[in-house]
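Task: fold both queries, return tokens.
Query 1:
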Amino acid sequence: MVNYRRIGLDTNVIIYYIEEHPVFLEKVEPLIDRIVEGKAIGITSYVTLLELLVKPIKDERFDLVEQYKTILMTQLEMVLLDESVSLRAAELRAKYGIKTPDAIQLASVIFKNGDVFITNDERLDVVEEIKVLTLRDI
């Protein structure tokens, strides 16, 4: 992971870190620490914010909503869903048959010149436009 400077993060990676997942924390913590320490740049789309806030909103944990928003906005490069990202996402969906949120995540990182996209979704490693690493690869 040391070789990658611009790291795309799927929502599941951030959730594992925040929730201190018993299995995956040891894999994602060094990665997130590199971003927090300024040794790498973390990139994600606003899909991550949407997905991350569902449970806290459902549980009426508005303190966590604010905490998660602050973490994402201050620690990561957040990518808006604009025409360029939408077009690239559509191309990825058409080529690989991946789900819309995944296509948006990948297109966002590609648009921001990411070096790698980290996920726990092994179905995404078919994408050729960017290096995709699953947590099993780390």
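Query 1 returned. Query 2:
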Amino acid sequence: MNTLVEVTDFYTAEFEAVAGRLPGRELDWLQALRRQGLKAFGRLGFPTTRQEEWKYTSVRPIGRERFALAVETCVGLVEDDLGAARMPELDAHRFVFVNGRYAPQLSRPGKLPTGATAKPLAQALREEPDRVRALLGRRVRADENGFTALNLAYFTDGLFLEVEPGVRLERPVHMLHVSIGQSEPAAHHLRHLVCAGEGSEVALIEHYVSLGEGTYLDNVATELALQPQAAVRHYKLLQEGAGGFHVAAIDAHQLDDTHYRSHNVCLGGALVRNDIRADLDAEGARCELFGLYVTDGRQHVDNHTRVDHRKPHGTSHEFYKGVLAGRSRGVFNGVVYVHPGAQKTDAQQANHNLLLSRDAEIDTKPQLEIYADDVKCSHGATVGQLDENQMFYLRSRGIPEPTAAGMLTYGFAHDLVEHMGLEPVRHLIEEILVRKLPHAAELQGVE
């Protein structure tokens, strides 16, 4: 990897060249924040495997490239071009971002109920900068690592969503992020701010797709604030391209009796890193974290999760599964931290992995750190191959071996998908799984 000085010099010079085009350039407080992010990156650089949190994931492929800010263009993109990203059955408030910037001609925001505001972050900075200032950088900070630092310095757009107390969004909010390949490596820095008021209900779909070829970096930060009794369902679906790098930080701050439910599905990308945190900061808070990653070739997917139980009577259930083929590698590191005084905590965590080739690899590390004495906590992990007894049972009933293997693999993965409440999202993932998993052709003909 190039030296920290060389990398810092590149991104510093790049920032000076594009700063005048970034949203909120007229806001002194935001310019100060951006420069704090740039300064933090100069100090931190990109993470290395010498750091405990990144010991299984080398970001050298990212460090070797020079990811200039993506060009502002939709190159005549029309809705039919969205192809596999489309969900015809989905009735949603749709916000499309192309190469990190809002694309109004592809978006269908629709009419939101009274008390709900959803708009591009760049627009929110123009129209209500004080409200953005109150939320920006409160949960995902610049000093966490080089990626969060660059995100704060460079972010170009994202979604600003605020739902007032008692408001229930009947339709989900769909954030569709489209990456279009460019001649040179390009970066898309996105920032999402979500505030769910007391007793409100929101469903979010955070969706990433790639059109064409090219090397690019999606660097994303999503900050969620859940006021008492709020409920947020958060679906994240990655269909990144073969040249796509995706690094993301998601942080949900939960108050009394809130419910945060996360579905994190990774079905593409050369190198993916997700940091998902749920901070249960009041009594009765509840979170559910579901994750599925399906990899092949030389893909690398790293999911880091952290659940902080800070107050009594908190509940967290976490269930992640991986299907790995080729020479791909998966990483799961899940931490459940029960703070002193967080009595009556109920925390469950599990990670199960299916290896379809001898060269696939998984590093799994579920962790419990408990500093309260009246809790119910469990965690575990498994790594294995297709069950020989189940294969024998299917073969004995006349099912060919490839079809039997496909059925078992699909069933293993689908166990996570069936937890999803939004049918159009579930159907899209099911279609992708049938195409992506081995022996899909045989599986399609099986009832």
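Both queries returned. Flag for query 2: The mean pLDDT is 93.
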